[in-house]
């Protein structure tokens, strides 16, 4: 029987995460809980820092984009590498939506 090696990863965050998904490529994407009034509503943990996901225009809480991610409740990645986000829009009253990136 092959030996299974487990690697423990630990990330300290300065804000409260919501949901987390890991893509087939190993990318770590997470929503940030709206109760913490985050600067970015969805982030990627990349090179030991959190960066807006999929980009600043859509993830910045102060963005004026009609497609901005406001209050992402669910986040999952599929076998094709698409990250699906369910946004209820309740933080800033934007249109609720299901977004695939």
Describe the main β-sheet briefly.
Answer: 4 strands, antiparallel
What is the count of β-strands? 7
What is the residue-averaged pLDDT?
86
Low-confidence parts: none
Helix count equals: 1
Spatial ordering of strands, largest sheet:
1-2-3-4
Question: Radius of gyration, Cα only, in angstroms?
Answer: 14 Å
Helix percent band: under 10%
Instruction: Tell me what portion of residues adopts beta-strand conformation.
Output: 25-35%
Overall 3D form: globular
Q: Could you spell the SSE succession in H and E letters?
A: EEEEHEEE
| Category from helices, strands and their pairing | mainly beta
Number of domains: 1
State the end-to-end CA separation.
Answer: 39 Å
Give a description of the structure.
It is built from 1 helix and 7 strands; from the N terminus they run ββββαβββ. Strand 3 and strand 4 form a beta hairpin. The protein is globular and about 40 Å long. It has one domain. The protein is 4% helix and 35% strand. The model has no long low-confidence stretch (mean pLDDT 86). The strands form 2 sheets. It has a 4-stranded antiparallel β-sheet. It has a 3-stranded antiparallel β-sheet with strand order 5-6-7, with no helix packed on it. It starts with 16 loop residues before the first strand and ends with a strand. The protein is mainly beta and 101 residues long. The longest helix has 4 residues, at 56-59.
């Amino acid at each position: 029987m092959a030996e299974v090696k487990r690697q423990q990863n630990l990330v300290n965050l300065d804000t409260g995460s919501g949901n987390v998904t890991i893509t087939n490529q190993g990318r770590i994407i997470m929503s940030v809980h709206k109760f913490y009034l985050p600067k970015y509503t969805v982030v990627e943990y990349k090179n030991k820092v959190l960066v807006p996901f999929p980009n600043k225009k859509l993830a910045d809480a102060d963005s004026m984009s009609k497609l901005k991610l406001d209050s992402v409740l669910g986040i999952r990645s599929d076998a094709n590498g698409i990250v699906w986000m369910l946004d209820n829009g309740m933080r800033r009253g934007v249109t609720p939506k299901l977004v695939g990136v």
